[in-house]
Design goal:
The complex is a heterodimer of chains A (about 190) and B (about 550). By secondary structure, chain A is an all-alpha fold. Helix content of chain A is about 60%, strand content about 0%. The model of chain A is unreliable at about 1-45 (pLDDT under 50). The two termini of chain B are about 25 Å apart. The chains are: A mainly alpha (about 190), B alpha/beta (about 550).
Amino acid sequence: MDGKHDNAARDVAASGLSRRTFLAASAALTGGAWFAGFAPIRAADAEYAILGAKEAAIMDALADCIIPPGEYPGGKEAGVTRFIDQQLGGYLASYRDMYETCLPALNAGSRAKHGDAFVELDEDEQIQYLTEIEAGEYEGQSGGDAENLWESYSPRAFFNTARDHCMMGFYGHPRHGGNENWVSYRMLGLRV
Amino acid sequence: MANKHVNAIVVGSGAGGGVVAKELSEAGLTVVLFERGGWASYAEHGNDELTAQRSFPLQCYFGPDNERYRRVAVDQQGNERIVYPNDWAYHNVAACVGSGTVSYGAMAWRFMEEDFTMKSVYGHVEGSTLEDWPITYADLEPCYEKAEWEIGVAGDDSENPFAPWRNKPHPMPAFGHNKEARMLEEAAKKAGFHPFSIPMLRNSESYGGRRACVHVRNCVGFACPVDAKNGTHNTVIPTALETGNCELRIESQVVEILTGESGRITGVAYFDSEGRKHEQTADIVVLAASATETPRLLLNSASRYFPEGVGNRHDWVGRNLQGHAYCGADGLFDEDIYDDVGPGASVAICDFAHNNPGVIGGAMLANDFIRLPYAFTGAHPPGSPRWGRAHKEHQKNYYRRTAAVRGPVQEMPNFESRVQVSQDVRDHWGKPVAKISGFKLDTDIETCRFIAGKAQEWLEAAGASEIWQSVPGAGVSGGQHQSGTCRMGDDPHTSVTNKYGQVHDVDNLFIADGSLHVTNGAFNPVLTIMALGYWVSGYIVKEWERGNRFR
């Protein structure tokens, strides 16, 4: 047998990714009442190639927590979501499943814990929730909907990954979709 | 159609291979120089930090690509995982014409005399295979000189009291310093150290028909926008091609060394960019594919003459993998020390490279290259917020107020840090991939603590308001300074090649890259690899000219 095929299967196993589609995941999640209206997440969206409008909204909120707006634009305005969307269809394609699972889980987990979806929390509440995730308070939870929400992913690992990707999107080269008009370079006082 | 037989095959067009191709073709040998990648260019890559060769979160523009290449990394617990080139655990070396010499920081260090006689200087080190080189600094000195003049180095040893002796000065004057380095130079003097300008494979004035450096921010990890950085791609390789004796065969992946009847090496097998397999025969084969890929090629070329892989009769191929145990300190300052004059690294001290009481080895210490904005997001003081408003504020307030001093601590080689070939993972071409495993010895970490302390002293003298040290973990080193996996030596039982890089018992097979290093010096290794290219090819040419065809 061709070793290359063996190897492809091994790659998939080693990556920890399943090959199931997002639709299967969303079907499993429709038990959450809030999520029912979320089902057509794959509907054609003019703005993004991978992320649906709802996922993009969650990503926008997350990006603005990681890099908040202020004197200089935050993650959302700088195009971090666009960066991530482009990369999930490119260099970071292996993270697509993670984002498609974890962005909705971020919202749903917040509703379970705080009564409101992540995107509906005010800034302080969002930061509090993310700080809890970063501290590992949502790791390995059993019972209820929580374990289904995140499936095989660690909430903390997702947060750390998304945090790093937000930094890339904000501080990296605009050719990849983020750092619009070199905003971060302007903030640092760098010639562009 | 069969390829025409040539005198010599060189596998790999980096620091070692580029030099060998030039020396052999100038001497009249017909040469095919194999490179798995293509030509890299500033025009194509530009200033893209996310795909540069220093922090490559998206991919390595200079190669290798994530689609066709992979390796197996083994962690300290023995767990194996598949890794891709833009993962640090892959230990990538660029895959393009010139390899790392296109995108490197271009520090042009000569090793010190002690770096060739580590066993004699430090004695037996528990757990280490430490040994002296079979050649001395004096043997290699003329080769260092040749590398400095033919490829082009700017420097001046007169300010460095620890510099090894030399017969001829550097061909270009040393670089001056930017604002940060001027401050650190003054501080080093205040601390009683001996600062000087780092020798660089970069033009401080026009040289070799190319212009002087314009001090861009994006230097290490990038191609040069004005071609002022000197690598094999813009010096010795063009010279080799001009002889008419050398063919550069790009996008060609060599997968096997071919052994003929009687156990003589007859050439190599390779795949072209279309995935077609070919053979190229030659009188001699020179491997310069890096300290990971050279041993992998040897191990992947087993035959009935070499059942354990070529040159591996005594199980030393792939052993003693080393890099450098990088350590140092970062400091925050109360005012701007950043003036946007690249590349950043320019001031160094060699006070602690050797002769440190109670410490084995040591390191050169230098200020760091400019940390670009994304890389800087991970360079905040320990314990500071990793995201949110405070993180953004720190980026804004301290990007221009942070300095780092770091050094490559010389590691003690050990037998269990190694490159093997995987039993079950194969690459795009169906060949077993490299499997990398091992660790640093405790003594390496102790030396790192000592050196990091000296870096802290330097930053204290500069008036930093907050300083933190960094010391690496115990995982195996390698990275772009990888070395040691086919070390040279007089005893075939404890080395892979003789002192000329000629594989023991295989007369027409040579190695000319960092694999040969017995120890890896207290310095960035590239000029030593170039010097070894001259050393190995010097021997081949001398023998060739007296009629030896290595049969």
